[in-house]
Every structure is written in C-alpha cells, then in structure tokens.
Amino acid sequence: MNIPEYFGSMVFDDSAMKSRLSQSVYSAMKRTIDDGRSLDISIANAVADAMKEWAIERGATHFTHWFQPMTGITAEKHDSFIVPAANGKVIMEFSGKELIKGEPDASAFPSGGLRATFEARGYTAWDPTSYAFIKEHTLCIPTAFCSFGGEALDMKTPLLRSMEALNRQAMRILHLFGNQNVTSIKTTVGPEQEYFLIDKEMFDKRRDIYYTGRTLFGARPPKGQELHDHYFGALKPRVAAFMKELDEELWKLGVLAKTEHNEAAPAQHELAPIYTTTNIATDHNQLTMEMMQRIAPKHGLACLLHEKPFEGVNGSGKHNNWSIQTNTGTNLLTPGDTPYENAQFLIFLCAFIRAVDEYSDLLRLSTATAGNDHRLGGHEAPPAIVSIFLGDELTSILDSIEQDTAYSAAEKQPLRLGVHVLPKLPRDTTDRNRTSPIAFTGNKFEFRMLGAPASIALTNVMLNTAVAESLSLFADELENANDFESALHDLLRRTIHDHRRVIFNGNGYDEAWVREATEVRGLHNLRTTPDCVPKLLDRKNIDLFVKHNIFTESELRSRCHIMLSNYCKVLNIEARTMIDMVRRDILPAISAYEGKLSSAANEKRSLSSTISCGYEEKLVRRLSVLADTICRCTDTLEDNLTEIKTISDVFPRSGKYRDIICPVMEELRTAVDEAETCTASEFWPFPTYGDLLFGVR
Ligand code: ADP
Ligand code: MG
Question: What is the DSSP letter of 333?
Fold first, then answer.
C-alpha cells in the first residue's frame, strides 16, 4: 500500500475541498476555517453537496453529526442520504442545513441540570475547523453540542472557546514584543496513548472487566513487570498485526499515528501520534481510542483503556504534550537565539508556571475519575500533587533572574533580559523524571496526570484558560509600562518569586515530597475525585472562566454535577459487579472446593483412622474464615449501597461512596484474592492475572 496516497483518503480535507469546490466556495470555506467567519447558506449547500458526492464515491450511505457529549466518549446518530423521488425510487441528498445544524433527540445525555425535560433536545453545530471524515460507511461531521439556551453540553465547545481566549491574550504579548507578522497562535497537542491488549476469550470470561473495564479481583501472579522485559520488547505476532491494521485505519482518517511500542507492564502498549492543533488532536484521540477497541477483536484481542485495569502493575495514562505555535511557525516554548527571543520565551514559561501554581486544582480535577483515583500516586504514575519539573538548567536560570545573580561562574554577571542570550538548553536532560505530573521537555510541557480513557479536552481547557489568565495580567501590566524592559524584568522576577513553590525537580514518589509539598509549600494534595471536583466551583475558578468566556457559572455547576455523579455511578456498578461475582461464582467455587477437600479427608479416614488429614482440614478452616469475611463484606456492601441511595445531593453522596464503599470493596478484594491462592485452579471460576497478563501469545 502506498501510504502517502491513502493517508487522509477518508477525510474531506483541504486538498479534497480544493479539488471539489468552486474557487469562490473554497475561498469562503477557507475564510470560515481560518478566521471563524460564518457561512452563508448557499455556500453551505455547495459544500454539503460536494461532501456528499465525495462520501458516496467512498461507499458512504449515511451521515452523522459526530460530537463529544459529557460522557467522555463520542456520540453519533446516523441518517441515510436517501430522499424519496417521484417514481417510487430514492435519490441521495444532503443539504447545507443538514450540514450546519442537527437536532438529535439527545435527552439521555448528561446535562447536569442545564436542560429541563421540556427542552431536552439540544442541537449540534458544525465545527468547520475539524475536517469531516468517513467511518464505517458514514460521513461524520465534527460538531459542537449545545442546549437550546446556547449552553455547552459537550467537550468541544469550551475547548474552542479556550483556544480563542489564549489566542487573544497571547497576541497582546506578542505585539508588545514587536511580532508584527504573527496574526494568530494555536496550541498544539500530541497525546501519547497507553492501553492493554488481552486475549478476547479471557476478556469474555471476566465479568468485572466486561462491566467496569478493570479487574475487581485477582491475586498477583508470580511474575509482574519487575524484569522490565516487556518494555520496548519485540511485538508478539498478533499484537503486531493489530498495530498494523490500527495504523492503516488511522492513517486513512488522517490521524498522524507515529510511534507504537510495548510499555512497562506486561500486555501494555503505547501509541503516540505526531502533534497537531488541539481541537483536531482531541478528535483524533477519540478516534484512536475507538479504533483500538474496534480493531482488537478482529485479532482475537480486547483493548482495555481503563486507568488501572490491574493491581500491582502500571496503570495506563495519556501524556498531553502541549505547546503554543504562532501562525508563522514559531513554537513559543522554544528558547531562542537572541536576547529578545529569550525574553519572550521566559514570559511564556513564567505564564505557564503561574498558571499551574494558581490553578493546580483545576488541572488535577480535569483528570479526576473513579478509575484515575486508583492510578495517581503509584507505579509510574504521578502523585495527585501538581508540580512542574523544569530540570536543573532552566531552574538555575530562573534562580539567577529572581536573585539577580550570575547564572554560572563563567558568566560572572547577572542575567539581564533583553541583553543576555540564554545558555543553550540541552533538550534531553529535561525529560527523564517520570515521577513529575508536568515536565518541561525542551520545547513543550508534558502533562502526565490524565488517565488513558479520558478525553483530552478538559485538561486543555484548563491549561489554555489558566495560561490565558497569566498572559492577560502580564499584558495589563506591560502595556502600561513606561520602560518596557525593566517592567518585564520586574514582572518575571516577581512571578518566579511568587510561584516557584510549584517547581520541583526531585522524586515525586518520595513520601518526604508529600510532606514538603503540603506542609512547607502549601500545595494541594487532592487525592480523590470527591476531594477535587467541587473546587470547580471555588470563587476564583468561576471568576476565571467567566472572565475569559469559557464557561458560565451554570455550565460549571452542570460539569461539576456530572463529574461527581459519574464517579458515583462507576462505583455503584463496580460494587454491584463484585456482589454478583461473589455470590454467583466465587462463593460457590470456594464451597465446592471445600466440599472436595472434606470428602477427600473423609475418604482417607475411611481407609484408616491413622492417616493424617491435616492439610485438608487446615485449608478448609482457612477457606471457611475467608468465605465468612467475603460473605460479610458482600452484605455490608449491599447495605451501604442501599443507604447511599437515599442521599440525593451528589456532593455528600460522592463522599459517601469514597468513604463507605471503597474501603469495603478493598477488604472484599483482599479476602477473595487470598481465597484464590488457596483454591485449586480447576475450581476457580475466572481466568487469573497470569492468564490475563501473559495470555496473548
Ligand atoms: P517522548 O516523550 O516519548 O520522549 P517525544 O517527546 O518525541 O517522545 O514526543 C512525545 C509526543 O509529544 C509526540 O506525540 C510528539 O508529537 C509530541 N510533541 C513533540 N513536540 C511537540 C510540540 N511542540 N507540541 C506538542 N506536542 C509535541
Ligand atoms: Mg513522552
């Protein structure tokens, strides 16, 4: 296959538009895409018609408005192109109106109280900045999803708003630095995606993975990831075939899939795309996850995107590599070659540092789910404390600016902005601290808290908005300065001084760090979802979003409500799955094995009263104790679920799930896992961790 030829072949991209639209329609489309101008209906009709012809040639029969409601996954409702014709036949039609706006009966999507039932029908509106594409015989039109009152009901709308806000504020700064050629900036993201592949047959036998995406039970196998023999290891043939097909399907959709390799845990893998504009990267990441799950079964595999499918080995995250690019092709997070470029780099760097320090709660909560609560803080995942790793080099540059001291012995003089060139920063030394939630990696920031299944939208809303706020305050100050250079110097010194507490280059896994971060530096350590999500409604955060037109207060209330109620629902499903597995499979298996042991002992006794039955008796005793614990925990879990149901307010309800469901689930699991290690394999009703983690051959 000729990759350049089929890359993007299922995308109605710029080259498709150029070749299929008239010059005037194409120019109007370009103005809409580049400058956000609204489209005239006659133009929309022409675009829709060309899109339809293009799609039908590629086998499409249906179209859908493709959107990202607050469930975190994508939604689509398919309509065929057919329209009845006079002679009892049909013709294939697609109008500009259908392209621009859709009205899915979307009442079952979460709105967090934004929609009353009488106005349940939200609408979807075309986002022309993200290209339409064909998936499974359907023309997919990327859209935003809003209520009839205009409130955002999706992930995309606030993301686009936040990109716009950052653009506004960054342009003010760039103008102060005399960048006359730059007319806009965009943030770009490369999301590295981790996932597990397990054997499909084993997947089908594990109701916990089937219902919840993770194992709720499972004793540790003799071998885990300690030998590091999976990381970057040779691919198993089935996995290689899966990756090949995945790459091909993604390339057809214009997704820049680039790097694929085995990850640290057994059965764990990673895909990294080449970075692109944030809203497109968001769409592409959703498509990537969808394709992974769709293609795996064709190879006898199941793809797990849960944040922590297995205890005792690494969970799966998503690294959000973020930078800001100008329309003239400059990455604003690249240290430059001239004093002026350096000063500009430093102001964006300081804007980022301030943003993370002031709004670390928002960054943390943008990754908060019941699943990610298990992952953060252990096994190659960052702790729940948000800090930035800058590396020694850059940190000492900031030190010398803050303290007006020489950067190095050779330098002798204090570093003056606008006068001195920064020493060249070696790229690679910055990247190796895996314990930090945010690392500067030479020309971008890598944010590592996101869990594997998350949409990257909300995290990028937080990053964009918080940095926009820093830049807007910086611009307010600098625009009014009499002496730009000394005002800039003062601003940077003050920012470094006020926000350096968030910079930490040490080991984030260290217990001492937790103490220092919380007790000495006063940083947040928001461990669980109910701890951090309510922070969305802190006054400073509401003010931030309202000021930059990202969320209204009622939109924020709705998001907060949805995130907490998702947390409750997930735990409810997990607890009920545990109860179901215990009562219908695990306890019966233990009893059967106890029965077998007891009858073996009886048989022995009938042969001779002097034969020892110590082994059988000891085991039956142990299993009986465990079975009692299992039974008691299951009953408690059930009672607690009933009790929680009576709490209607989601804030205390989510706290209750954390406090009276999670600990019982843990106790139950411990007992079951021990019982598994004492029960003969042939009696155990589920594939073991060994089967799951090492079962793909
Ligand atoms: P690693 O982190 O594994 O060392 P890289 O740093 O090369 O690998 O890239 C990781 C991801 O970061 C890739 O998806 C890559 O496209 C993305 N990336 C690289 N440069 C940028 C940038 N300037 N902005 C955003 N993402 C970037
Ligand atoms: Mg990386």
Answer: T
- Position 310 scores a pLDDT of 96
Q: How far is the CA of 141 from the centre of ligand 1 (A)?
A: 28
- Position 117 pLDDT exceeds 50: no
What is the CA(313)–ligand 2 centre distance, in A?
19
Name the maximum alpha-carbon separation found in the chain.
104
Q: CA-based angle 629:633:634, to the nearest 5?
A: 115
Ligand nearest to the CA of 442: 1
Whether 498 shows a pLDDT value over 90: the answer reads: yes
Q: What is the pLDDT of residues 15-63, one digit of tens each?
A: 999 999 999 999 999 988 877 777 889 999 999 999 999 999 999 999 9
Q: Is the pTM of this model over 0.70?
A: yes
DSSP 2-59: -HHHHTTTTEE-HHHHHHHS-HHHHHHHHHHHHH-PPPPHHHHHHHHHHHHHHHHHTT
Atom 16 of ligand 1: nearest residue by CA position? 274
**Each residue's pLDDT tens digit, 421-470:** 555 555 544 456 778 899 999 899 999 999 999 999 999 999 999 999 99
In angstroms, what is the span from residue 333 Cα to ligand 1's centroid?
A: 13
Q: Are 60 and 139 a contacting pair, CB within 8 Å?
A: yes
Whole-angstrom distance, CA of residue 495 vs CA of residue 466 = 14
Distance CA 149, CA 45 (A): 26
| Run of H or E residues at 320 | strand 318-326
Residues with CB under 6 A from ligand 1: 188-190, 192, 272-275, 321-323, 331, 431, 441, 443-444
Atom of ligand 1 nearest to the CA of 441: 6
Ligand 1 probe mutation, 263, 429, 444, 460, most atoms within 8 A of CB: 444
* Ligand 1 atom closest to 191 (CA): 14
User: Residue-wise over 97-110: b if at least 16 C-beta within 10 A, else e?
Assistant: ebbbebebebeebb
Q: Which of 232, 271, 318, 321 to mutate to test the pocket of ligand 1 (most atoms within 8 A of CB)?
A: 321
